[in-house]
Amino acid sequence: KAGVTQTPxxxxxxxxxxxxxxxxxxxxxxxxxxYQQTPGQGLQFLFEYFSETQRNKGNFPGxxxxxxxxxxxxxxxxxxxxLGDSALYLCASSLGGPRIVNTEAFFGQGTRLTVV
Amino acid sequence: xxxxxxxxxxxxxxxxxPLTVKCTYSVSGNPYLFWYVQYPNRGLQFLLKxxxxxxxxxxxxxxxxxxxxxxxxxxxxxxSALVSDSALYFCAVRDTSDYKLSFGAGTTVTVRA
Lengths: 116, 113
Description:
The structure holds 2 protein chains of 2 kinds.
Chain A: E1 5-7, E2 10-13, E3 19-24, E4 31-38, E5 42-50, E6 53-57, E7 64-68, E8 74-78, E9 87-94, E10 106-107, E11 111-115
Parallel strand pairs in A: 2-11
Antiparallel strand pairs in A: 1-3, 3-8, 4-5, 4-9, 5-6, 7-8, 9-10, 9-11
Chain B: E1 3-5, E2 10-14, E3 19-21, E4 24-26, E5 33-38, E6 44-50, E7 56-58, E8 64-68, E9 73-78, E10 87-94, E11 101-103, E12 107-112
Parallel strand pairs in B: 2-12
Antiparallel strand pairs in B: 1-4, 3-9, 5-6, 5-10, 7-8, 8-9, 10-11, 10-12
């Protein structure tokens, strides 16, 4: 079974630009979550999608947005990039649904975004 | 809100010695606890979880975790550490109201040969 696939793996952008990151979850998984990982802040929750609906959102500015498609693939978008957005962005998929509390999430390898 | 704490930023052990990575949790209701490991420039890999049942949970790569309700702890253990166990370890709790995973700050484990 293929794992969680994130593309691209590495990205360099300039301040003010926008970026779109992609995540393909494990087949059959309907929940996709996004996390930002930085050395200073650790792992911070961005948002979670389930069946094309955003179910939860973390404390990030509106420049961070996402969506989920009918095949459960997800994208996240960051507009007007700032230097502080440089981070490893991780996507995680899980079965979702009513039993989500006791199911583990599976992570992709991440997209390393560098803003210069 | 549910949370976990990892009191140690770093743990250093010699190869062959027991390894323990500490985690304490704070939840309202039943705890759903997880351990993940991260190798450099990689995503997180699931190691094990506690949902209910036996307090000793066995997971991948020889790891196990001890759930202690009275001490609200969920420590990760390995009886005999390997150099290849050197990595960043995260404890996490699943919030039962909004289902999100909340992670601890992480503990860097270094196993010396």
